[in-house]
Specification:
The complex is a heterodimer of chains A (845) and B (451). Chain A contains 25 helices and 36 strands. With 845 residues, chain A is an alpha/beta fold. Chain A folds into five domains: 97 residues, Ubiquitin-like (UB roll) (Roll), CATH 3.10.20.740; 145 residues, Alpha-Beta Plaits; 237 residues, Rossmann fold, CATH 3.40.50.740; 137 residues, Dimethylsulfoxide Reductase, domain 2, CATH 3.40.228.10; 104 residues, Beta Barrel (Barwin-like endoglucanases). In chain A, the strands form nine sheets. A seven-stranded mixed beta sheet of chain A has the order 15-14-27-26-25-16-17, sandwiched between helices. The longest helix of chain A is centred in the middle third of the chain and has 19 residues. The radius of gyration of chain A is 28 Å and the shape is globular. In chain B, the strands form two sheets. Chain B has a five-stranded mixed beta sheet, with helices on both faces. Chain B is globular. Classes of the chains: A alpha/beta (845), B alpha/beta (451). Chains A and B meet through helix 2, strand 6, strand 8 and strand 9 of A and helix 13, helix 14 and helix 15 of B.
C-alpha cells in the first residue's frame, strides 16, 4: 500500500532509463510519479485498492512478454520499466485502450459538466486519435438516471473504472452502489430496494474520471474554465476538511474536497460539499435592522444599528452592572471571532457571562477543556496509527464524518482496535472491536475502570491499552458532557495510561471557542480567570466575578437579572435543550442583539439585528478537533451589507468607547495567537487524580450491576478474521423507575435542520429519516415494528417519531434525533422517557 | 497411437455411475493406496507423473499442489472446476455423468495430499444430468463411508459440496469462479495473491479441472511410470478429446496425448462427413487459434499444437468443412465472447462488442476495405492487454481466420458474397445463420433507478 510506513528495505528499479530506489511494495505507477512521469490512468486512485480494470496504464516491463498495468504491478528489485515515453509497446497499448474507451463514449464534451477538467478528455488530447475509425452503433442508455437526489448517472459516459463502487466499498463503507450486468452492458447502478444512502456520495462525483456521475446541484451551472478556484476550509463541522471553493461571477458554484493528506486526505462529506447554498439564500440577513420606539423593525445603517446596540448594552450595564449582559455564541465563529467576542465581553463590557455551548454542558467540563485549549493533537494521523482507540460520547459518522472515515481506514488497513464506551455504538458497529456497554449517563464508571484496570470484565481492553502504550488514543465527544463525570473520567483514562486525548466537538467553531476561552471562568489558552497570565497584560480589564453559563444566563434573563443578551450565530429558541426557558428568557429580557447570517426562530425577538458574513465571504481560520488551526481566504463578496463578526464586535466596542486596536483580521490574529496557542499536549495539563480535577463518577441512577464488555464480531468482506467466541451482548438496564424506563441519548444527524443547510434541497433529500433508535429486544417487547411510529413520553412532553430497531443501541436506551425533525427532544423534559406505541401505525416495509 | 480406456473405462458399463458398479470395476483402488501414503508422497508421485491440468492451461498439477502453504493456520480448500463452458467442450459432462465416483475418488486423494478437509465442485448450472448423477454419487459415498468423517476407518475427514453455477462463462476462470462461489459477482480477481495462497475465503485453495482430478486415482494406483507410458515426454498420459462439427461420429474419445488429429478424426470419428473436405478446425475450443487442413497431422499435445501456432486448450476439436464460412463461424464465436465478457476490463468489454458489430456488418455485405485491418488491430489491442484470458481467447478465432482465410473476408467485402460452395449462401448471411439481432437493444435495468 502506498500509505503505509515504508519498511527499511527498498528496491532498486529503472523507469524510462532513470534509476530510483523505492520502498518495497510500491506500485510502478506511484514510482513513476516520483520521477515526474505521469502514466495515463482512469481506474487507479492513490487511496483505493488497485483493480486494473481500465488497462490504460500499460507499461513495458523488460523480460515480460505482455505489457503490465502499472497501477497493479509492484516494483521489484532490478525491474526495468518503460512507459509510453520510451516504449512503443506501452504507447501503442495505451493508445489502443484509449480507442476502446472512446468507442462507446458519447463524446458530448460540449455539454458535459466534466468537459474542461476531464481525464478522458485530457488524455485523448494528449495521447488519443484525432478521429474514430468506427462507423458502427454506440451503446445507448437512458440518461441521466438518479443514483440519489444528489447524484445523477450518465451510463454512456461511464468508463467502468469502478472508482465509485470501490470508494463505497472501501472508504465510506456504504455499499449501495454497484456494478450490474456484464460485457458492454455493464453499468453502475443502485439496488432496486435500497437507496444509495451515503454521507459521502459527493466524493464519487469528484473522483469520477469522466462525466458519468454528476451532482444534481451543480449540473450545467458552470464550465470549469470559467471558474475561479480558491482554497477554503469547511465550516460545517470540526473535521476541518480542506476545500476548493469554485466561484463564478461572485457566486459559489460548488465546493470540492481539496487534498490534504494530514486532514481530510482527498475526501469530504456531503454536508460540507453541498451545504453552501445558504450563502446566497434569500433568507440571508443583508442589512442591519433596529427596533424603533413603536416596536417595529426597521432597516438601518450600520452606524445607527451599532449605536443602538451599544446604547442598549450600556443601558443594561448601567442598570445591573456588567453581569447584566450575557453573550452567547454558536458553533460557526472563526477563531478570530471567538477571540474578539471573548475580549469584547470581558474587557469592553466587563462580564464573564459568555458561553459557546448551546448543547448540554456541565461545570466539570471546564478543567478538561482548559487542558485541551490551545494544544495540538492527537492528530488524524496519530488516531489512524493508534493500535487502540477508545471512543465515548461520539457518533463519528453523524458528528465528524471525516474522522469516521479515518477510523474506518485504520480498521481496514491496520485492524485498529476500536473500543466504544457507552449506550450507543451507532455507525461504529461494523468496525468496532469491543463495545463496553453502559446505560445512558453512566459512562464514567466504566471509563474509570478502564483507567484503573483490574476489572476482569475489561481485562481484554486494558491489556490492549497496555500494549498500545502512549500510541493509544481516547476520543471524547462533546456529548460526554451530558453524562455526569464522564468527560473527566475519559480524560483521567488518558492521563492515567498516558494515552492521547482528544475532545471532539461537533461544530467547526467549538474548538476555537475553547481556545479563546468562550466559556465562563476560562480565558484564552485554557487559562482560568484566577490566573490570567499574559492575558491580563493584553487586555484592559478582566471580569471581577465569575460568569454564568448558557442556562444560567437564560435563567437570569427570564428572572430579569440579565438585561441584555448578545446572540452571535445562535438560535436558542430552536436549539437550546429547554426551548421554553429560552423563549421565556427572550421574552423577558430588555435587549436582544442578534448577529447572524440567516433568519431564524430567535431573530423575531431581536431589538437589533447585525448581519454577519458567511465563511466563504470572509477571511479567518477554523480549528479542527485536533487543535489544528487552518486559515482560509475570502472567496466571494458578502451578501448585502454583511460584515465579519470580529469587525462588528470591534465597531461595537468603538461605539461603547473602547478601541481594541484592530484594523484587520490579521491584527486580531496577531494579538490572539500567542494567547490562544499552548505548547505541549493536553495530556500534560490534564488535572491529575490527586489534583482533584477529576471526580470519580457516582452515577445518579446506577444499574443493578456493572455493564459488561461485549464482543462485537466484525462483519463484512474485509473484516479482520476473528476466531474468538462471540458471546451474546448482555445489557443491564432496567433500573430508572417503571414510569420512565428508558435513558435518552440525543444525537444530531449530520444532515438535519441546520440553518446552514438552507437552500441545499438535494442534499436535504438525502437526509436520514429521523427515528427513535431502539434495541430490537425492547422494540419487540413493546410490540414496536421497525418503521412504526412511537410516542416518546417524558416528564414534560410527548413526541412522535418512527422506530428504528437497531442492535447498535443498548437495551433500556433510546437515541433521539436532535436536529432533524422540527421537534426538540428537550421538550420531553429530563433524560428519561417511556415509549408508547401509536395506534394504527405499522411497519413501513 | 490406439484409442485407450483409462478415464473412459466405465463409459460402456450400465452401472459405472453407482458405487457398486464403481467398486466392482476396480474403483477406489487409488484412494485405498493414497490413504496409506504420506501426503507429501502423493504430491511427489503426481509431480513425477508429469500430469498437466486438463482445463486448458496445462499447468503441472503436482507443482500447483506444491504451492499450497501448509502452515498458515487457515483451512485449505479444494475446488473442482466443473464449469465446463468453453465452446465445443463436453468431456467433463460425460465423465461426471458416467463415472462420478472417479471424480470423487480423485478429490479425496487430492484433499489427502493437500491437507484439505472441505471441497467444492463448481458445476455448470446447465449440467442438470451430470449434477444429478453427482448428487446421487455424493450421497452414496457419504452413506458408505467414502466421504465424510473417518473415511474407511483411516481417520481422514473430507467433505464435498456441489455448487451449481449461474451460467456465466467467465466463472470458468478460476478467480472469477472463487468470487462466484463466495456469493459475489463473478469477475476475475487481481493476482497476486494467487489462489494457492489466498483463494476461497482468502484461504489457500487449489482449483483443478474435473478431468485432471479424475486422472489422479489412476496415477496413484498404477504409478507415474505407467502414466508416462502414454503420451509424450512433456505431455504424458491419456486425454479425452471432444470432437464436434462436420464429422461422421462426433463425441468424446480417449487417446494418449500426442496422437495426431488425423488419427483421432479418421479412426475414431469416421472422418469428415461424406463429400466434405476439412477446411479449418479449432484444436482446443473456440479460444484456441484455428488450424487448417495442413495441420491435420499435428500431434494433439501441448507442445506440438503450440508449435503449430495454436493451443491444446480443452482438447475440444471442432471440425469444419469447405461448406462452412469461416467468417460466419467466427462471428458466432465472437458473439459468444461479446455476450460472455464480464465487463471488468476495457479491451475485452469494448473490444468484443465492436468486433461482433464489424463482423456482422461484413457478413451483411456492408464491410469496408479497412475493416480487416481494424479487426486485426482491435485483436492486437485486446490480446495480452485484457485482465484475464477471456479477452485473449476472443481474439484467437479472428486473428487466425484472417491469417488463413483473408481471401474469404476480402471476397465478402469486395464482392458482397461468400465463395460459391459455402452454405448458406442465399440472402443476408446473418439472418440465415441465426445470427440476426435487433439493432436497437433495450437498455437493461433502466427501471432500477426510480427512487
Amino acid at each position: 500500500m502506498t500509505d503505509t510506513a515504508a519498511p527499511a528495505d527498498t528496491v532498486h528499479l529503472t523507469i524510462d532509463g532513470r534509476e530510483l530506489d523505492v520502498p518495497k511494495g510500491l506500485l510502478v505507477i506511484r514510482a513513476a510519479e516520483q520521477l515526474g512521469i505521469t502514466i495515463p490512468r482512469f481506474c487507479d486512485h492513490p487511496l483505493l485498492d488497485p483493480v486494473a480494470a481500465c488497462r490504460q496504464c500499460l507499461v513495458e516491463v523488460e523480460g515480460q512478454r505482455k505489457p503490465f498495468t502499472a497501477c497493479s504491478t509492484t516494483c521489484t528489485d532490478g525491474m526495468v520499466v518503460k512507459t509510453h515515453l520510451t516504449s512503443d509497446v506501452a504507447r501503442e497499448g495505451q493508445e489502443g485502450q484509449l480507442e476502446f474507451l472512446l468507442l462507446n463514449h458519447p463524446l458530448d464534451c460540449p455539454q458535459c459538466d466534466k468537459g474542461g477538467e476531464c481525464p478522458l478528455q485530457d488524455q485523448t488530447l494528449a495521447h488519443g486519435p484525432g478521429d474514430s475509425r468506427m462507423i458502427d452503433r454506440k451503446r445507448r442508455f437512458t440518461k441521466p438516471v438518479p443514483i440519489s437526489a444528489q447524484v445523477a448517472l450518465d451510463r454512456e459516459r461511464c468508463v467502468l473504472c469502478a472508482r465509485c463502487t470501490r470508494f463505497s466499498a472501501e472508504i465510506s463503507g456504504d455499499k449501495f452502489i454497484e456494478l450490474f450486468e456484464r460485457g458492454a452492458l455493464e453499468q453502475v447502478a443502485i439496488y432496486e430496494d435500497e437507496p444509495y444512502e451515503s454521507y459521502f456520495s459527493g466524493n464519487v462525483v469528484q473522483i469520477c474520471p469522466v462525466g458519468a456521475l454528476t451532482s444534481t446541484s451543480y449540473r450545467f451551472s458552470a464550465r470549469p474554465f470559467d471558474l475561479r478556484s480558491l482554497p477554503g476550509v469547511c465550516n460545517q463541522c470540526s473535521a476541518g476538511c480542506n476545500l476548493r471553493v469554485d466561484v463564478r461571477r461572485g457566486e459559489v458554484q460548488r465546493l470540492l474536497a481539496r487534498d490534504n493528506m494530514a486532514v481530510n486526505e482527498m475526501w469530504n462529506c456531503d454536508k460540507g460539499r453541498f451545504g453552501f447554498e445558504y450563502v446566497a439564500s434569500a433568507e440571508r440577513l443583508r442589512q442591519p435592522v433596529v427596533r424603533d420606539e413603536l416596536g417595529s423593525m426597521r432597516p438601518a445603517t450600520w452606524l445607527t444599528a451599532l449605536r443602538a446596540a451599544a446604547g442598549r448594552i450600556q443601558a443594561a450595564v448601567d442598570a445591573g452592572g456588567p453581569a447584566a449582559v450575557g453573550v452567547l455564541t454558536g458553533g460557526r465563529l472563526t477563531d478570530e471571532d471567538a477571540y474578539a467576542v471573548g475580549r469584547f465581553a470581558r474587557d469592553v463590557v466587563g462580564t464573564d457571562n459568555v458561553d459557546f455551548r448551546l448543547r448540554p454542558r456541565t461545570d466539570e467540563e471546564r478543567d478538561v477543556l482548559a487542558a485541551v485549549a490551545g494544544t495540538l493533537g492527537p492528530t488524524y494521523d496519530e488516531v489512524e496509527h493508534a493500535p487502540v482507540v477508545v471512543v465515548a460520547g461520539l457518533e463519528t459518522e453523524e458528528e465528524v464524518p471525516i474522522l469516521h472515515l479515518r477510523l474506518r481506514k485504520a480498521w481496514r488497513k491496520h485492524r485498529q482496535r476500536i473500543v466504544v464506551v457507552g449506550p450507543v455504538i451507532g455507525s461504529l458497529e461494523e468496525i468496532a472491536w469491543r463495545w463496553i456497554q453502559t446505560p445512558a449517563g453512566e459512562e464514567s464508571s466504566r471509563l474509570t475502570a478502564l483507567a484503573s484496570g483490574g476489572d476482569a470484565d475489561l481485562s481484554e481492553v486494558t491489556d490492549a491499552l497496555d500494549e498500545a502504550g502512549d500510541r493509544g488514543v481516547v476520543l471524547a465527544g462533546e456529548r460526554l458532557a451530558h453524562s455526569p463525570g464522564a468527560l473527566p473520567a475519559a480524560a483521567e483514562l488518558a492521563r492515567a495510561r498516558g494515552l492521547g486525548f482528544a475532545w471532539v466537538p461537533r461544530r467547526n467553531g467549538a474548538r476555537g471557542a475553547v481556545d479563546a476561552g468562550l466559556l465562563p471562568g476560562l480565558l484564552p489558552g485554557g487559562r482560568i480567570a484566577a490566573e490570567p497570565g499574559p492575558v491580563a497584560d493584553a487586555w484592559g480589564r478582566l471580569p471581577e466575578q465569575p460568569g454564568l453559563d448558557t442556562r444560567g444566563m437564560l435563567e437570569a434573563a427570564a428572572a430579569g437579572e440579565v438585561r441584555a443578551l448578545y446572540l452571535i450565530g445562535i438560535d436558542p429558541v430552536r436549539d437550546f435543550e429547554d426551548p421554553a426557558l429560552a423563549q421565556a428568557a427572550l421574552e423577558r429580557v430588555d435587549t436582544v442583539i442578534v448577529q447572524d447570517l440567516l433568519q431564524n426562530e430567535t431573530t423575531r425577538f431581536a431589538d437589533v439585528i447585525l448581519p454577519a458574513t458567511a465563511a466563504q465571504e470572509r477571511v479567518g481560520s477554523f480549528t479542527t478537533w485536533e487543535g489544528r488551526r487552518q486559515p482560509f481566504p475570502q472567496a466571494v463578496a458578502p451578501q448585502g451589507l454583511a460584515q465579519q463578526d470580529w469587525d462588528i464586535v470591534r465597531q461595537l466596542a468603538r461605539a461603547l468607547g473602547s478601541d481594541l486596536g484592530w484594523e484587520t483580521a490579521n491584527d486580531v490574529r496577531r494579538e490572539a495567537a500567542p494567547l490562544m496557542e499552548v505548547a505541549g499536549s493536553a495530556l500534560s495539563r490534564l488535572p491529575g487524580a490527586q489534583g482533584g480535577g477529576v471526580v470519580p463518577a457516582s452515577p445518579e441512577r446506577s444499574g443493578d450491576d456493572a455493564p459488561v464488555s461485549s464482543e462485537r464480531p466484525s462483519a463484512g468482506h474485509d473484516a479482520p478474521a476473528s476466531s474468538e467466541p462471540s458471546p451474546d451482548s448482555l445489557s443491564h438496564q432496567e433500573a430508572g423507575g417503571a414510569e420512565f424506563p428508558f435513558g435518552v441519548v440525543v444525537v444530531d444527524y449530520l444532515v438535519g435542520d441546520s440553518t446552514m443547510l438552507v437552500g441545499a434541497k438535494a442534499l436535504k433529500e438525502t437526509a436520514r429519516r429521523p427515528a427513535v433508535w431502539v434495541h430490537p429486544a425492547d422494540a419487540g417487547r413493546l410490540g414496536l415494528a421497525d418503521g412504526a411510529e412511537v410516542a416518546v413520553v417524558g416528564s414534560a412532553g410527548r413526541l412522535v417519531w418512527p422506530v428504528r430497531a437497531t442492535s447498535g443501541v443498548l437495551q433500556g436506551c433510546v437515541v433521539l434525533p436532535g436536529n432533524s425533525s422540527g421537534q426538540a427532544p428537550g421538550l420531553l423534559g429530563g433524560s428519561r422517557v417511556r415509549l408508547e406505541p401509536v395506534a394504527g401505525t405499522g411497519g413501513d416495509e | 497411437m490406439p484409442e485407450v480406456q483409462v478415464l473412459s473405462q466405465r463409459y460402456s458399463l450400465s452401472d459405472g455411475h453407482t458405487l457398486d458398479g464403481y467398486l466392482r470395476s476396480g474403483g477406489m483402488a487409488g484412494l485405498r493406496v493414497a490413504l496409506d501414503m504420506a501426503p507429501a508422497d502423493i504430491i511427489t508421485l503426481v509431480k513425477d507423473s508429469g500430469l498437466r491440468g486438463r482445463g486448458g492451461a496445462g499447468f503441472p498439477t503436482g507443482v500447483k499442489w506444491g504451492f499450497v502453504p501448509q502452515d498458515t493456520g487457515r483451512p485449505i480448500y479444494l475446488v473442482v472446476n466443473a464449469d465446463e463452458g468453453e465452446p465445443g467442450t463436453f468431456k467433463d459432462r460425460e465423465l461426471m455423468e458416467r463415472d462420478p465416483f472417479m471424480l470423487l475418488e480423485g478429490m479425496a486423494i487430492a484433499a489427502r495430499a493437500l491437507g484439505c478437509a472441505r471441497s467444492f465442485i463448481f458445476i455448470r448450472g446447465e449440467y442438470l444430468w451430470p449434477g444429478i448423477r453427482l448428487e446421487e454419487a455424493i450421497a452414496e459415498a457419504y452413506t458408505d463411508g467414502w466421504l465424510g468423517k473417518d473415511i474407511q476407518g483411516s481417520g481422514f475427514d473430507f467433505d464435498v459440496t456441489l455448487h451449481y453455477a449461474a451460467g456465466a462463462y467467465i466463472c470458468g476462470e478460476e478467480t472469477a469462479l472463487l468470487d462466484a462461489l463466495e456469493g459475489r459477482r463473478g469477475q476475475p480477481r487481481l493476482r497476486p495473491p494467487f489462489p494457492a495462497v489466498a483463494g476461497l475465503y482468502a484461504c489457500p485453495t487449489v482449483v483443478n479441472n474435473v478431468e485432471t482430478i479424475a486422472t489422479v486415482p489412476h496415477i496413484i494406483e498404477l504409478g507415474a511410470e505407467w502414466f508416462r507410458s502414454m503420451g509424450t515426454e512433456k505431455s504424458p498420459g491419456p486425454k479425452l478429446f471432444c470432437v464436434s462439427g462436420e464429422v461422421v461420429r462426433p463425441g468424446n474419445y480417449e487417446f494418449p496425448m500426442g496422437t495426431p488429429a488425423r488419427e483421432i478424426i479418421e479412426t475414431a470419428c469416421g472422418g469428415m462427413l461424406p463429400d466434405r473436405a476439412l477446411k479449418f478446425w479449432a484444436p482446443g475450443g473456440s479460444s484456441t487459434p484455428l488450424l487448417t487442413a495442413e495441420h491435420y497431422d499435428v500431434g494433439m499435445d501441448f507442445e506440438s499444437i503450440s508449435a503449430a501456432g495454436s493451443l491444446l486448450g480443452t482438447a475440444a476439436m471442432m471440425m469444419f468443412s469447405d461448406r462452412t464460412s469461416v467468417v460466419d463461424a467466427v462471428l458466432n464465436w465472437t458473439r459468444f465472447y461479446e455476450h460472455e465478457s464480464c465487463g471488468k476490463c476495457t479491451p475485452c468489454r469494448e473490444g468484443t462488442f465492436w468486433l461482433a458489430q464489424i463482423l456482422e456488418r461484413i457478413l451483411d455485405r456492408r464491410g469496408r476495405e479497412q475493416d480487416i485491418q481494424i479487426l486485426d488491430d482491435l485483436c492486437d489491442n485486446i490480446f495480452g492487454r485484457a485482465f484475464c484470458a477471456l479477452g485473449d481467447g476472443a481474439t484467437s478465432p479472428i486473428k487466425s481466420s484472417i491469417k488463413y482465410f483473408r481471401e474469404e473476408y476480402v471476397q465478402l467485402i469486395e464482392q458482397g458474397r461468400l465463395p460459391d460452395h459455402i452454405e448458406p449462401h442465399a440472402g443476408v448471411v446473418t439472418e440465415n445463420s441465426g445470427h440476426h439481432r435487433p439493432h436497437s437493444r433495450p437498455p437493461a435495468r433502466a427501471g432500477a433507478h426510480a427512487r
